[in-house]
Design brief:
Elements (H helix, E strand, L loop, with lengths): L17 H20 L3 H11 L4 H8 L4 H27 L8 H4 L3
Length: 109
C-alpha cells in the first residue's frame, strides 16, 4: 500500500490529470465556436448581450423583438439547437442524451 502525504498507510487517491482537463476544455471550446459560427448575427447579438448581463427587455430593443418574452423564447430555441448540435455526434457513442450545457448557455438562464 502506498503512503499518503500525511505518512499514514492509506490508498493513494486519484489525482485528476490537468492535461486531460485542458484537452477537454479545448474540445468543448471548439464545439462552441463551431456552433456559434452557424448562428445568425441576431442570435449572436442575443447571446453576447445576455452573457454580458443585459436584460431581456434591452435585448428586445436592440434586436427588434417586440417583447422580452419573444427574446426568452429565442434563447430557448438557441439552447435547443445547441443541444441537438452537440448531442447528435456523440449520441451513438455514449447512448444517452443527458449532458450539461456549456458555460455560455448556462449564463443565459
Amino acid at each position: 500500500m502506498e503512503k499518503a502525504a500525511n505518512g499514514q498507510d492509506e490508498p493513494a487517491k486519484d489525482i485528476p490529470d490537468p492535461k486531460a482537463a485542458f484537452e477537454q476544455k479545448v474540445i468543448d471550446q471548439e464545439q462552441v465556436d463551431e456552433f456559434q459560427s452557424k448562428l445568425s448575427k441576431t442570435d449572436m447579438l442575443i447571446l453576447k448581450m445576455r452573457m454580458d448581463g443585459s436584460k431581456l427587455e434591452d435585448i428586445a430593443k436592440a434586436t427588434g423583438y417586440k417583447t422580452a418574452s419573444a427574446v426568452k423564447k429565442r434563447i430557448d430555441k438557441i439552447a435547443a439547437q445547441y443541444e441537438q448540435f452537440h448531442l447528435l455526434p456523440i449520441f451513438a457513442s455514449r447512448g444517452a442524451f443527458i449532458f450539461p450545457r456549456p458555460d455560455f448557455l448556462q449564463a443565459l438562464f
